[in-house]
Every structure is written in structure tokens, then in C-alpha cells.
Amino acid sequence: MGNFTISDQVFRQIIEYLAYKTPGIHKLAKMRLTKYEEGPSIYIEVVVVYGYNILESLNQFKDKCKKEIEKLTAMNIRSIEIVARAIEVPEKFEKIKNN
């Protein structure tokens, strides 16, 4: 049937979209993709939102990433590692702090 290739940018765009749609995740900070014969291994660093349960948000995000990437690319994900790199403090908390 031939070979097909999926650009690393496609993975990044899918992950950025899922980060945008996941409560508690502010944005994608960094992503690294390593390709193996049995499937890609993905390392992700995100900025989380203050006030959310970080562990719950990261687990939800990880599950979404695995499910959507496998569905959209028809590739099995070997592993996904997600690290919370920073915390974004929403404006409403900044106002409370300054008063």
C-alpha cells in the first residue's frame, strides 16, 4: 500500500487545540516527538491555570491527547509524558491580591 508520513507539526497542532479545549491547561509550552517503529513517544510541557486541580487536569489532558491522536492519525501512541512547567494566574486572582 506504500508509506505515509505525518509531520511533527500535525501532532503539535492537535495537542495545542486540545490544550486550548482542556479546563486547567492554559497553553502548550514545549513539545518533543520521538518516532519509533511501534509508534511515537510524546513529551509535552504545559502551563496550568491557578485554581484547578493540577493532577486531574494533566490526567484529563493526557487521556484526550492519546485518544485524539490515535483516532486522527491511526497511529498507536507508545507513551505520553506531560509536565506542568508553569502556573498562569488568572486576572481575577491578581485583582484580589492587589486589593
Report on the architecture of this protein.
The protein is an alpha+beta fold. The protein has one domain: Alpha-Beta Plaits (2-Layer Sandwich). It is built from three helices and three strands; from the N terminus they run H-E-E-H-E-H. A three-stranded mixed β-sheet has the order 1-2-3, with helices on one face. Strand 2, helix 2 and strand 3 form a beta-alpha-beta unit. The longest helix has 20 residues, at 54-73. The model has no long low-confidence stretch (mean pLDDT 90).
Quick take:
It is built from 3 helices and 3 strands. The chain is of the alpha+beta class. It has a 3-stranded mixed β-sheet with strand order 1-2-3, with helices on one face.
Descriptive tags:
single chain; 99 residues; alpha+beta; Alpha-Beta Plaits; three-stranded mixed beta sheet; 3 helices
How are the elements arranged and paired?
Elements: H1 8-21, E1 25-36, E2 39-49, H2 54-73, E3 79-88, H3 91-98
Parallel strand pairs: 2-3
Antiparallel strand pairs: 1-2
Helix pairs in contact: 1-2
The gyration radius over C-alpha positions equals 16 Å
Low-confidence segments? none
Helix content: 40-55%
* Percent of residues in β-strands: 25-35%
Q: Supply the helix-strand structural class.
A: alpha+beta
Largest sheet: 3 strands, mixed
In the CATH hierarchy, what is the superfamily? Cation efflux protein, cytoplasmic domain
Query: What's the CATH first level?
Result: Alpha Beta
The number of helical elements comes to 3
The number of E-state strands comes to 3
The overall number of domains is 1
Q: What is the arithmetic mean of pLDDT?
A: 90
